[in-house]
User: Fold ABC transporter ATP-binding protein from Novosphingobium album.
Amino acid sequence: MPAQATARPSVIIDDVSQVYPTRNGDYLALDRVSLTIAQGEFVSLLGPSGCGKSTLLKAVSGLTRHTSGRIEIGGHPVVKPQTDIGIVFQEPFLLEWRSVLRNVMLQAEFRKLDKAVYTEKARDLLERVGLGGFLDSLPHELSGGMRQRAAICRAMLHDPSLLLMDEPFGALDAMTRDNLNLLLQDIWLRSPKTVLFVTHGVTEAILLSDRVVVMSPRPGRIAEVITIDLPRPRTLKLRATPEFGRYAHQIHEVFRSLGVDS
Ligand SMILES: Nc1ncnc2c1ncn2[C@@H]1O[C@H](COP(=O)(O)OP(=O)(O)OP(=O)(O)O)[C@@H](O)[C@H]1O
Assistant:
């Protein structure tokens, strides 16, 4: 059990399948996926393109309805879009005409939260991610990494206990991605939350996760769940250690056995 996690389940995914109707007939995107995520646990979904990672994340968020099986968050079945969670997508989806601070405050406006209290929280969060000097900037004045940091602040403003992240750093260059990995770790260590994190990146998954869930290609199934027993905080240097290398090797071996070129 990772230090941050408690034995209480935060998310239960039980025998979940997703069938998409297409012009060529029904397409099985997820096939009987089961996974329980403990409160405070950081879990990555890792797999090749098209294996159903986003499909599973969307089903957990309630944005789409899974075809069969059961999903629960905090003991409640997911039957509609969840409002208490935070979601970060690959694209930051900032409103170009609103300042960075006002983009983050969108979360408070949607929820009709106290403006003064949440403006303070938004400022604090933006300060923590290094955007304290850009509160009044417009999104087009920021780099890709800065935009994504603002999107993370927006997702976290209401302090959700569950954060769903769909390849949040996938569109960024390697160095920015490294920095944001460390930033996300720092945020997670300071403010414990359950995180379900979709990625293509083996290194990123090992660096951040308590467990890495390796998915098989079409139809998406869980091929292997690997517990990452490395102390935190994890540094980028850790990637050069034999322990880290062994986890990477283990994951690549799973991909190889699935016929996936990783
Ligand atoms: N609305 C839809 N209708 C039909 N097929 C869909 C739909 N959404 C996804 N699919 C198919 O389901 C499969 C899984 O898609 P999904 O986006 O979940 O994969 P992914 O693992 O997240 O991929 P990537 O890593 O490329 O984002 C893909 O083959 C995709 O074409």
